[in-house]
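Translate sequence into C-alpha cells.
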Amino acid sequence: MTPAPFCSRRHLLWVLAMAVFAAAPVSAADEAPDAFVRRFTSEMIDLVRSDKMIKAGDLNYIATVVDARVLPHLNFQRMTAQAVGPGWRQATPEQKNRMQEEFKTLLVRTYSGALTQISDQTVTVKPLRGAATDAEVLVRSELKGRGDPIQLDYRLEKTPGQGAGWKIYNLNVMGIWLIDTYRSQFAEEINAKGIDGLINTLSERNRSNAKK
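Result follows.
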C-alpha cells in the first residue's frame, strides 16, 4: 500500500483539524458544535506552541499526546468502517478490532510530526448551518496564517450516554476528505489480499514507521 499522497504542509493541516477536539471536558456535551470547535482550536494551538517536547520533535511523545488528547474525541469505529468500506460488514469482531488499532496507529504516526510546524496559524469558525437539534452537522472553518486562507471542514455527530458530546467522523482539508484518501487504498488491499491482507499491510507499515 503506497503512502497517503500528502506533503508535509497538508499533514500539518490534518493535525490542526483533528486538534480541535483535544482536551474537551464532559461539559462540552452541552455546547453547540461550532462553539466547541472555536474554543478548543485555540487551546490546542497554544499547547503546541508552549510544549518544548512537541517543538523539539519528539515523535514518541507527540504520538502519546495525540493518542490521549485527540483520539478520544473521534468516532474511530465509524471512521475505520468508512475507510474499509463494504469489507467492514464481512469482517469478524476480532478483525474489526485489529483494523481499528492498526488504522489508529497509522494516523497517529503519519501526522504527529506535523505538530512541530504549528507557529502563527489561527482558525476562524464559520456560522453553523442547521437546526439546534441536529445529531449530525457540518462545521466549516478557515485556517489563516501565511498565504491564502485554507478551508477546513468537520463532520460531527452527537453521541449519547457516557462520554456524550460531539465526535468527529471525517475531516475535509483543502477539498479532500480524510477517510476518502484511505478508502481507495484499503479497497485495493482487500480486493487483492482480503481483510487479513489489509491488516497485515497496515501492521507492516506501522512497524516501518516506528523504525524511522
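Note: Residues 178-211 form the longest helix (34 residues).
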